[in-house]
Design brief:
Blueprint: H1 2-23, H2 27-54, H3 59-69, H4 77-103, E1 112-117, E2 120-127, H5 130-141, E3 148-151, E4 154-155
Length: 156
C-alpha cells in the first residue's frame, strides 16, 4: 500500500512539474520569437527606406527639389495610368461623335466643335436650325462612355 501511495504521489508530482513546465516558455522559444521580431522590424525598415528611395523622397532629394522648385510632388503610377486611360477614352468618344456628325447629311462636322472631358461632351459652333441642335446632342448622347452633353451651338 505504501508503494502504491508512493507511486501515486510520484505521478502527481511528475504531472504537476510537467504542467508547470508546459506553461513556461522555453528560453529557446523566447529567443526564436525575439529573433523573428527583430528580423521583421529590420525588413520593414529596409522596405520603407527602399520605397523612399524609389519615390525620390530621401532627405537629400527633397531638399534639392524644394530648393529648385519650391515644392515636392509625386503621383502614383496607377493614377497616372488612369488619367491616360481617361484621356484616351475621351479622345475615342470625340472621334466617334465627329464620325457620326460626318455621316449625318443634316449636320456639318466642320461647323460643330466637339470637346470631351471625363465623359462630358461639349458641342459648340453653328447649325442651320434648332432641330439640328437636338440631333447633334442626341448623336453625342448615344455614344458609349458619354455621361453628359452640353451644347453651346447657335443657329446661324
Amino acid at each position: 500500500m505504501k508503494v502504491f501511495l508512493g507511486f501515486l504521489l510520484g505521478v502527481l508530482v511528475a504531472g504537476a512539474v510537467i504542467f508547470y513546465l508546459r506553461g513556461q516558455p522555453h528560453p529557446a522559444t523566447l529567443e526564436g520569437t525575439r529573433d523573428r521580431i527583430v528580423s521583421g522590424a529590420t525588413n520593414a525598415e529596409h522596405s520603407a527606406l527602399n520605397k523612399l528611395e524609389d519615390l525620390g523622397l530621401t532627405p537629400e532629394k527633397v531638399k534639392e527639389e524644394l530648393a529648385r522648385t519650391g515644392k515636392v510632388i509625386r503621383h502614383k503610377s496607377q493614377e497616372i495610368g488612369q488619367t491616360l486611360a481617361n484621356e484616351t477614352a475621351d479622345a475615342r468618344m470625340t472621334a466617334d461623335i465627329k464620325a457620326k456628325l460626318l455621316a449625318d447629311t443634316d449636320l456639318s462636322a466642320l461647323s460643330i466643335s466637339v470637346n470631351t472631358t471625363a465623359g462630358c461632351v461639349t458641342l459648340s459652333g453653328t447649325t442651320s436650325n434648332t432641330a439640328n441642335i437636338g440631333k447633334a446632342m442626341l448623336l453625342a448622347y448615344d455614344t458609349p462612355g458619354v455621361t453628359q452633353v452640353i451644347s453651346t451651338l447657335q443657329v446661324k
